[in-house]
Amino acid sequence: MSIKQQATRSVFWSAVERFSVQGVQFLLSIIIARILLPSDYGLIAMLSIFMAIAQTFIDSGFANALIQKKDRTEVDYSTVFYFNIGVSVCVYLLLYGASPWVAAFYGQDQLVSITRVVGLTLIVNSFGIVQQARMTVALDFKRQAQASLLAVVLSGCVGVWLAYGGYGAWALVYQSLLNNLLRVAFIWFLSGWMPGWSFSARSFRVLFSFGSKLLLSTLLHTLYTNLYTLVIGKRFSAVELGYYNQAFIWAQFPSSNFTNVIVRAIYPIQCRLQDDTEQLNRMFLKYMRMACYCIFPVMLGFCALAEPVVRLVLTDKWLPAVPLLRILCVAYMWDPVMKINHTLLNVKGRSDYFLYAEIIKKVAAFSILFATVPFGVKVMCAGLVLYAFADIAIIVHYTRKLTGIGLPAQARELAPVIFLAFSMGALVYVSTLLGVSPGVQLAIGVPVGMAYYFLMSSLFHYEEFEVALSFIQKNKGKETK
User: Is the dihedral of CA 337, 338, 343, 349 positive or negative?
Assistant: First the structure.
């Protein structure tokens, strides 16, 4: 199988896994959001920074190190497996003991028991990190899709039942714990891999030399991303945090998931090409532009139709989240550019560049965050748009050292896609000014936006559109045979 065929197959199954799982989870979360109050979501969101940082320590960059390493062995896998479990137990015990201080910090007594139950997911997840890394190395996204989808459907149904039963924030707690427990159990069953009784200090040192830099980089990014929930929850109210959290979830859903599909699918393949700079560069530009071609119109269309979507799907009680959602859509639409550049550094084994870039970026990020806090949540969200451009400029500075592809070259590559997406977003926004019901606004805006985007893509011969059209025609031809 050629590199192109492997990449196509990997992207396909990665997309199936990501969007089937996240899609079902997203639909179930909409049902639960219609039942629960914004304050319930705000209460759980208060723990996000603690859980995210804890999970970062447990992985410690070892999953990426296993995927990047060319001569990985069974001893490597077993070493990482036992390390992950040991760290998860230690981190959980720290979180358990710190739960009264977490509750006191926010002034929410319920958080003591909620923290101790939610924290169990850390131990549960640690049992599946290596199995998932092995599947990724083998480009086996199909079985990952099966495990994740079954887990999210079963746990989601339980979550909806608990929400209707009046469990409030605890419905979200039990749903999360059950989802992770089922997913790990299914991954164990499908992977067929069992760790050996071995732990190698030498293997640990080799993997840690790469993973430790990723750990520090990821820790900085995780701290910054989740610091918004901490600051909003502390300075404002649980209700306002609930609005921000819901806007954040919706804005990140399309951009983060689609970008992760591309990155996760092509990363193992790029690692095989890490010594072939010319072919690696071609693959880098091709998939970055393809990702942007797909995600930019979705994010800008969502930005334009935010109000009718929220009115129709979440009900009017969530309307204060609309302005935040619009700003965050513009901020997170640039995820493909940032993450695909980040991945290239890992592919080339330059986790040191990754760390240097992350330190510089987070100096800028924290400066923007603390400068915008006094002006309210909306201005804080606007600061994320500014940070997105700073992130791109800094990370491209480092990828240019390895590829020779700088910011002007990447901007020229993406300019046609940017122009097309923004013009489509402006056209779609007009549909919200017609004074009709939310349902009619969506019925007009969505097809008009899609028709304009595909028509202009065809007229100006966008390569991405022609590739997609060729793929569809090819598959139709197979079906008719």
Answer: positive
Inter-residue contact 107 to 115 (CB < 8 Å): no
CA distance 52 to 189: 26
Tokens coding 292: 């942007």
Q: Yes or no: say if 341 and 395 are a contact pair by the CB < 8 Å rule.
A: yes
Contact call for residues 237 and 313 (beta carbons, < 8 A) = no
d(C-alpha 217, C-alpha 205), whole Å: 18
Which single residue is written with the structure tokens 């339980």? 158
Q: From 123, 115, 125, 56, select the one nearest 88 (Cα to Cα).
A: 123
Alpha-carbon distance values, 290 to 156, 259, 260, 468 (Å):
32, 10, 13, 10
| Tens-digit pLDDT profile for residues 395-423 | 999 999 988 899 999 999 999 999 999 99
Q: Contact, 90 vs 25, CB < 8 A? A: no
Contact 49, 229 (CB under 8 A): yes
Closest CA to 434 of 292, 308, 346: 308
Residues of the chain with pLDDT under 50: 479-481
Closest CA to 94 of 43, 145, 53, 146: 53
pLDDT for the residue 325: 95
Q: Are the C-beta atoms of residues 60 and 208 closer than 8 Å to each other?
A: yes
pLDDT at 3: 53
Q: What is the pTM of this model?
A: 0.69
CB atoms within 10 A of CB 427: 17
The answer to whether residues 324 and 243 touch, using CB atoms and an 8 Å cutoff, is: yes
Asked whether the beta carbons of 67 and 268 are under 8 A apart, the reply is: yes
How many Cβ atoms sit within 10 Å of the Cβ of residue 426?
11
Q: Which residues, in sequence order, are CB contacts of 122 under 8 Å at separation 6+? A: 51, 54, 55, 58, 88, 91, 92, 95
Q: Give DSSP secondary structure letters for 8-51.
A: HHHHHHHHHHHHHHHHHHHHHHHHHHHHS-HHHHHHHHTTHHHH
Among 65, 62, 97, which Cα is nearest to 82's? 62
The number of beta carbons lying within 10 Å of the beta carbon of residue 339 is 20
- Residues 65, 267: Cα–Cα separation, whole Å: 12
Give counts: helices (H), strands (E), the chain.
21, 0
CB-CB contact of 183 with 151 (8 Å): yes
In three-state form (DSSP H/G/I as H, E/B as E, the rest C), the secondary structure along 379-393 is HHHHHHHHHHHHHHH
d(CA 440, CA 312) in angstroms, rounded, equals 10
Alpha-carbon distance of 17 to 260, in angstroms, equals: 11
Task: Give CA–CA dist 302/187, Å, rounded.
Answer: 34
Q: Which tens digit of pLDDT belongs to each residue from 257-300?
A: 778 777 777 777 777 777 777 888 888 888 889 889 989 999 99
Which amino acid, one-letter code, is at 292? C
The answer to whether 217 touches 361, Cβ cutoff 8 Å, is: no
